[in-house]
Amino acid sequence: MTENAHSREFTFSDIVYILGRHIKIMVLVPVVGTAVAGAIAFSLKPEYEARGYIEVGRVLEKPLEEPVAVADRMRSRAFLEGVKRELKCKETSLELSKRVKVDVVYRQPASQEEPTRAIAVTATATNAVLARDLVAAILTKVVKQHQKPYLESFGVNDEMLREMEKDMAQSRAEIDRGYADLGRLTTSGQASSLDVMYISSYLREKEDHVLRLQELTLEMREMLYAEVFTKPTTITVEPMVPDAPSGPHRIRIIIVAFAVSFIVAAVLAFFRARFPGRDAAATATGEQPSTFTDAATAPRRRRRPRSGDGRGRTTA
Predict the structure, then answer these.
(1) Cβ–Cβ < 8 Å for 134, 125
(2) Confidence band, pLDDT 50/70/90 cuts, at residue 277
(3) Whole-angstrom Cα distance, residue 56 to residue 117?
(4) CA–CA separation, 270 and 296 (whole Å)
(5) I need a surface site. Which of 20, 90, 174, 308 has the fewest CB within 10 A?
(6) Dist. CA 11–CA 15, nearest whole Å
(7) In degrees to the nearest 10, what's the CA dihedral of 158, 160, 164, 166?
(8) Distance (Å, whole) CA 8 – CA 308
(9) Structural domains of the chain, ranges and CATH numbers in brackets
């Protein structure tokens, strides 16, 4: 009979029996764990999250700096040390780096057909205004760093454009003088047909040169002054003061704590069933076995009535 009990298949009712037998553990552990987690959750200070976006400037479609390199620099402790000094924070740059998140993302501006790469900066703080100020300080610092190289690059290209326009004006004046001289020589008969052909060929080459310069200057001017191709580093989305805290999620913490506590209680119940502490006493008193296998698979014993007349009275 014992072999049949041990070979019986472990069922759901066996699990319920073991858990019910250790009902104190199944109640106390989740209650205590949930209460502790709730106390910790409600003792945590609320955290506020602010976010802003920035686009790296470009000149003639060439970025001033690769967005990935800019994002890496914004994460560095040296960069955050400068931000800390500007905001006069008491926290160290290492602590700031844990509360600042920088990502390179693709955004779809309403004025453009193709998405552009932008840098998203997210900061968390126990104060809503501080979270906004932290993001704003980081974005403003990048804008200031790119201001000088943008002006220098724009100035170089603008000067090149002015030189091309100056060369084009000089070439046009030279062409006008050449045609005037050619007409005067032709009228006076001082130029031979070979001279006329040579001067005409030279003037046509000059005209072609002016046309090429005109196309280049128009294209360069369009790219240099059109925002699609040339623009400084710009904060595209200003950080705002958050209205509500982003964390901690107290209800979620309590639910997770309850689930974990319940699992721990179940493990303890099965552990106690597997390794009982009072086997000898249980055997001596004739109680049901309390090992994991025996407790789950042994047949449920019924209490035997005392010898008597069936009504609880002993017979003589």
Answers:
(1) yes
(2) low
(3) 8
(4) 10
(5) 90
(6) 7
(7) 70
(8) 36
(9) 7-44+248-297 (no CATH), 48-237 (3.30.1890)
